[in-house]
Amino acid sequence: IEWIHSRSAGIDYVTSPTLSNSKAIMTNAKGSFSSTLAEYTMMAIAYYAKDLPRLLQQKQDKNWSKYSVQEIRGSSLGIIGYGDIGRASATLAKAYGMKVVALRRNPALSNNDPCVDLVYDNSKESIHKVMNTCDYILISAPLTAQTKGMIDKEAFVHMNKNAVLINVGRGPIIDEDAMIEALKKGMFKGVALDVFATEPLPSESELWEMNNVLISPHNMDMTETFMHEATEFFVHENIPRFIRDETLLNPVDKAAGY
Amino acid sequence: MANIICLSDPHDDANQRLYHGNLPKGAQVIAVGSEIDHFDIGKLKEANANVIFVSHPKSREPLAKLIQQVPSIQWIHSRSAGIDFITSNELSNCGAMVTNAKGCFSSTLAEYTMMAISFFAKDLPRLLKQKHSKTWEKYCVEEIRGKTLGIIGYGDIGRAAGTLAKAYGMKVIALRRNPQNSQGDPICDEVYSNDKTSLCRLVSKSDYILCAAPLTPETRGLIDEKVFSSAKKNSVFINVGRGPIVEEDALIEALKNGPLKGAALDVVATEPLPKDSELWTLENVLLSPHNMDMTETFMHEATEFFIEENLPRFLRNDPLLNLVDKVAGY
Which residues in chain B have their CB less than 8 angstroms from residue A66's CB? Predict the structure, then answer.
């Protein structure tokens, strides 16, 4: 075996010591899902900025009651894990006139990025700073040994009261119990989660019944053709390159896990 | 000199800077009231009132009377973008310039437009239902990228929405009175003029239809049964213009029996929406109480625009910003 290709972007479902130690090249579907997840991110932001829950409740009650909405323009988006999905979200956020702060392993790589106003490394201090200063925080990191449980109880202590947390990365990056506790205590405004520690989300999870929680069944990247397109990418892009002995697209670092 | 009559609510918080704050040198507020009886016409004429700042929703009649009785009025400024609430024969025929708050509300309404599009594209209603029943059921979402947004009324608000739509990778078709004004506009892929045939063609090609037009005699009832029946199957209609532009019965019909998948309405024919309207109970309708441009500071900012931008220009005899065509109504 010389080459292993994952049809999805995340490779956390196939990592193993055997994989890390093998000499085979590994590639993934980086980039195939980014645009749709960026659209979801902006929807999650608008859901809270315009108080969509209130609109829907008022409709149910036949209640015509004006209230002030928040502008997305001028607010800040902190992106934890500034890969392809993070960058697609940053691009849209910039179009809205948001301020964008990015966290990544290699901040230098984003030095001249027009979509980012500030870049930080992925240290605890940086995470705390982002949780504290940003109106919206997007987790678009891969699940790796380093990112697992990265958003922990301590991180939630730093979260500002009006912030909204959005997760399109992987559930286990967040300590789910700590998140639920912090939400219940009103330590921050709300969450929008497309991924969870356990999927399907067990019916006993408190998240189902909490008010300031938007739940989607890990489908916000699932367009009708996305899997077809991901397979096409393999067939039309990387297979020809492999056969011609050219450099493959989307190589992953098996040891790093993304 | 600017001797200003405020046709507004004296307790309107957003206007306090106008009533009590520092105004440019040469400007002063000489009266504040919301009805004609609140004003002493003799005193207004003595004081050479030449500017009227209008923010009260019930200003149509008092404004018409003030125009008739105080001939020294040179300039009327509306704090809102829409001027349909103050149009009259007296206004059309008088010599005064009229300006409005064009541009102050556009960005926020563009944000609402994309939210409305997302609401249907990602089937937010389904997400919320599934949460309520604790159902974990994957389903396909639609991409906004690649879809077509048709904009009826391509003014400041339409253009702001078009700009965001383009950022998403949508195709944008615009419909306006003067299509030539959009030649070379990088935001529009196509521009149509505002005849019925073009309007029907626009809705037949659009996945999302945005009405961002002003209410004028020309646009009243413009979007009727014929237009809705020409709409693309499963398209979504969004209205941030004015309710009466739409034949509401025809809209309800199209929502119940197709071709519309749904509608997002920030404006309706009668506001507040009467409790017996079917729009409250139709599942495929996203309703908001004409507040999607209402940020905490928007009215303050609109008053600031008058104070900081147009009042100095008036005092210096420079051209004013946001001149409206009183006869056309926008």
Answer: 289-291, 294
